[in-house]
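Many introductory courses stop at the sequence. We go one step further.
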Amino acid sequence: MIANVVAGILTKDGKFLVEKRRDDDDADPGYVEIPGGHVREGESLENALRREMKEELGIQVEKMKLVSKSLATATNGERQRIHYFHVERWNGVIRAKEAEKVYWESQVSGLSVAPDRAAIERLPMPKALQSQQLT
């Protein structure tokens, strides 16, 4: 079985937001990844992304666009179909609610998994690198 997962790419000042997973996480401990999580039964991808961004980062997603999909296998063996969204507008103050920490990264090589790196590289650069204002 393949689990559906959503990931939200937030950009600001030429950087993108990443989370460092806790070392005691069951899947991908200590990895640096794009924030996101599992889609619940009967939940749309968009609603799952809104929920996950609220749970993980404490923000409300206002505008998003699907940018890519990828298959991956987590370190615990779970097979995943990751749906990457560019979060173009959000409200709230970003904070790590579940991960060890969140921070702005400028180097794609700083991400732990290849599908995350590929998703960042697929963003339309002028739009992806425009400045976002937090409210």
